[in-house]
Amino acid sequence: MKTALSLTVLASLAVASNGNLGIVTSPNKLSIEEWQSLFKNSNATGAYAFEGYNVSEPSPANKTVDGWTATIRVANITDDPDADIPCPGIDISVKAPDGIKLPELNSSRTNSSNWHVCMSFWTPSRMKDGTADDAQDDDGDCSSFLSEECIEALKDEALGHTWNGERCGSAPQLPRECDKYYIPANGPTQTGSLGANLSSFDGSTLISQSMQTNGRNGMSQEEAYDRAVRGVWTVMFDWGRQTNFSYSKDDVMQPTLLCMRARNITNDSEDPNAGARATIHGPMALFITLLASALLV
After folding, report:
1. pLDDT given for residue 114 in this prediction
2. Pairwise CA distance, residues 17 & 178, whole Å
3. Residue in 193, 160, 51, 56 with CA at minimum distance from that of residue 113
């Protein structure tokens, strides 16, 4: 597990058929700075505005503020030290509104604020086929393809994912109200403990993935790119409770639920939403050229 950043990371890198997963770090041997630089020329992006809390004020806050932004980006990774051939990479980040001072750890590595934020998420592989068919125009609140009952049940689960002394405990589970949309037994809930150090809300990487295009379980380049661009990530943040003993919906701070997809295709990149793929341009053409070259070596 990579611990270069001064954060408590609950989950280590997970290796699955979909590739490597990183939580508050890169999914491979690249530094976080090297990883983020790969997304300056993204193939697809998605940006979602939402209301969060003013974390520069003491917790608990009594109202939300707008100006928070969650971003997902997909880019072609040509120099992944863990992969022999190019693969799509995914980067998810959150940026606080301008003017908000983000709490950090002080020099003695103790919490300098009483905020304790917990993050949990499910990868796109947890969704059943057809669930996200209407996700292209979703504004990030999941309402275009999840029922109101499922959304409320997910938020109820998030209320129990709170700071427990040194890290976030009681990871949320997919509730039965969401059985129509999610596969209950297709991998764990991924979690991360941001705690009182919220410096990662400056647009830094919170979740990352490199899709697997090599090895026995590797996908084709086309399938990997389609999954990266079409896939919807379900991400939740629990901002903390009024008290350590309360799970009530009447608590001041309510969880944030986001459904994120890289829905905006960059010019000259392939659009998997556009029926037939007659032509592939720009970065994806380079992707295929490099892939073919690697296979011929």
Report:
1. 76
2. 24
3. 56
Residue of 233, 261, 239, 265 lying closest to 96 (CA atoms): 239
Question: What does pTM read for this prediction?
Answer: 0.80
pLDDT tens string 283-295? 444 443 333 333 3
Length of the chain: 297
**Residue 282 pLDDT class (50, 70, 90 cuts):** very low
Classify residue 62 as left (phi > 0), alpha (psi -120 to 50) or beta.
Answer: alpha
pLDDT tens digits, 76-121: 887 666 656 678 899 999 999 999 988 876 544 445 567 888 999 9
